[in-house]
Amino acid sequence: MDRELTSTERKKAMRKKILPYIIGTGVIIIVIVILMMSMRTSISHNDLLVATVDNGTIETTVTGSGSVVPAFEEIINSPINTRIVEVYCKAGDSVDVGTPLLRLDLQSTETELNKLKDQIEMKRYELEQQKVGNDTRISDLTMQVKVKEMTVNRLEVELRNERYLDSLGSGTGDRVRQAELAYNTGKLELEQMRQQLANEHKVTDAGLNVKNLDINIANKNLGEMSRTLNDAQVRAPRRATLTYINDQIGQKISEGEKIAIISDLSNFKVDGELADSYGDRIRVGSKAMVRIGRERMPGVVSNVTPLSRNGVISFSVRLDDESNSRLRSGLKTDVYIMCDVMEDVKRIKNGSFYTGPGTYELFVFNGDDELVRRTVCLGDCNFEYVEVVNGLEAGDRVVINDMKRFNNSSTIKVK
Predict the structure, then answer these.
(1) Burial of 274 from C-beta contacts in 10 A (0-12 / 13-18 / 19+)
(2) Fewer Cβ neighbours under 10 Å: the N or C end of the chain?
(3) What are the two backbone dihedrals, phi and then psi, of residue 86, each rounded to the nearest 5 degrees?
């Protein structure tokens, strides 16, 4: 016989039916939470470079790129149009002063040199010939002047005689006037001949000066050609390392074409480039820091090119330690030029994240196991620190390595 269930019994039966559903739902929620936690973006603490924001001094810098080059380098150019006959050295050889590097074809230059010598000798003979001719003409004119002087003296005596006879009444006025005319004409002719002699002296002297100048010019050309011929005997001008040589035997080369380069590989400098927008912040004498890998080398800006090319200006840095063993020709470097000093500013360590003043999205520690993305405004920098304009406070711990792979994450779990 059936019996009606009490309310307590009905509640117990209901709980028995619902309990499995509640347990199942709880298990599902726990699994979902575990899955979400396991899928959450995370990074190992060992992979992070962390900098703590503090207050301090920043010697602001502008950053450029540079390349290590020999402190001394000399380019040897061909002094003539010729061709390469022999090569005595190869790139990388150490050479002393006067070491033969290569031999050029000098036959045509030697022929020209001998021809010029013959021309100078001929000019000297012409000069001697002109001197003899000048002496002859001047001697003739001098003799003519002396003869004319004697004639004028005779005419003067005759004039005095005619005047004396006329005073005694033995002469006539016509004879006196004829004697005076002859005497005056003779004086004029004598003056003309003397002037002609003086002019002849000037003409002969000028002619000799022209000839001497012509010979001097020819001698200078001879000296220049002799130096050219000597330079064509290509030798090392000083003790250094041969870093380049044209070793193509038989190749024709033009006057002024590069045929060799010698460099002093015991001392180096850095040639750098900088955006021309920073042109007013760099000057000769500015302190500089050159970074090669993790090594930093101080120096001083020794030269700045005043012209901008393709948006950049060029400069050179003289290193304090020019012979550092880390230096190699052609090695690429970062160059930091000191510009200004800022006192008591918020700063963080410089890192690969920094590319210039502006706004950045950086990850900041929220506790010990979580990173939170934060918008930060950064200012000037040097090779060690970056100025924090806003977005960070002293004591904040900031990740300063490359975090581009987390661009879509607002938080990151730190393991």
Answers:
(1) buried
(2) N
(3) -140, 150
